[in-house]
Amino acid sequence: MIDSTCCIAATYEAKRFGIKTGTNIGEARKRCPGLIVVEARPSLYVEYHHRLIAAVDSCVPVTQVRSIDEMSCALRGPWREKETALRLAREIKARIVATVGECMRSSIGIAPNSFLAKTASDMQKPDGLVVLDEGNLPESLFRLELRDFCGIGASREARLHACGITTVEQLCRASKEVLRRAWNGIEGDRMYALLQGEQVERPSSERCTVGHSHVLEPKCRTLPLAEGVLHRLLQKAAARLRALGYLAAGLSVSVEFLGHQHWGMR
Description:
Layout: H1 12-15, H2 25-31, H3 42-57, E1 64-67, E2 70-72, H4 82-99, E3 108-110, H5 114-122, E4 129-131, H6 154-162, H7 168-173, H8 176-183, H9 186-195, H10 223-244, E5 253-256, E6 262-265
Parallel strand pairs: 3-4
Antiparallel strand pairs: 1-2, 5-6
Helix pairs in contact: 3-4, 8-9
């Protein structure tokens, strides 16, 4: 494995050494001399993705696949009873171990809506099971940081700070008007409702960009070879556009150099 490439994922054991997605392989080896690096195997990940969906779906119907390793299920009728929901969660964990692999760990969150369930699943890893309900909400959230919530990044956190919200407790107790100001619109209303445990139906969204990226091997870091890689990335993006039935309104190219210097053109 070439030291100039980067990590696309890290185990919990590696994360303890400060290794995360995007960490340079050379830097990762310095932080963890015993690091075991495995080359990416996309086709294998897709295979496991489908096996995981099948394992969960055999216990509770999967309502939405959110990413390669994340999905949500809607609990209806008697399944909404806490003990029943916990039993189903344990069945899912056991089915994953039995049909996908004994080393495959999973974290499950149970909550009034998918946003809080996602938050709950992140609160106890790598093999957690957390329930958020009217008996422990919102107090159970107070130990989190603002950026532990999906949708709150650096810029949103700065806007929240500007509105006087620096803790999760303040976020949960904020009025709808304050959150509308922090989100600069109706998204603030949605966040308010989600934090109250309401199920919010989001408007359907459309894909607005198609892109590809590639980390150049040292031998390819010359202008002619880099242009060849750029041409291949363009052809891949164009093929996806055709498959989606889309037209391009613009084209952007961005390059990040060692040392994190950037160049871009649109």
